[in-house]
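User: Please work through this fold.
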Amino acid sequence: MEIKPRHKQPPRIYGLPKIHKLEIPLRPIVSCVNTFAYEFSAHLADILSQLTAKSDYTVTNSTHFLSTISHERIQENEVMVSFDVESLFTNMPIEMAVKAALCKLENDLGLADRTNLTPTQIADLLNFVLRSTYFQYNGSIQEQKDGAAMGSPVSVVIGNLYMEEFEERAIATATFKPKIWKGYVDDTFTIVGKVHLDGFLQHLNSQQPTIRFTMEIEKDNTIPFSTRQFQGIQMVFSPPVFTENPPTLTNT
């Protein structure tokens, strides 16, 4: 395999407003289209994408989400919570993310059907691409020193892989585990015992210094889940404590 760059345009940064957040902050996006590493990154994303969504704690879309929670019941001592990672991509530890990918690659029986590269070679290339985080802003060249650049094709894939490993480790070591944990990239839908809620949040935030979670507790029996990816899908429970009727989904 031989990959040759055909373009020399530097990555460019711009901001997208997070209209679902208070004060509408900007999400920094580094456009890598037509840059030297774009096709390189896309090729690695193709290889690694087959490794995602293998965790019991991950959902791939709204249909998958509904099928996994439609028969669940909430008890009086439980509460729906959405845990959200603050700025996952810019805070993701690259070394640990690459290690998570390498571990999955080493156990991928179908890897040889997708590429001639070894797991170690892929990890080395991934590390190079993820650390190539310079961009052009206001006429000058800057460098993103931490995390991965949103806008690089492989960033979303490696974000998924890292969070799957993070979730598995965090839940396995939790003293009181959530009844349900379903994640999509940096957003989660969970059902947790009310008395364990604060302790579980502290446990999540003790796993990795750069990964910090915030939480949103259900309000009026409704909880948002991954509004960006699922177009405002919300869980609506009525009555709050189930005996017979399962939860339903509404699109907003």
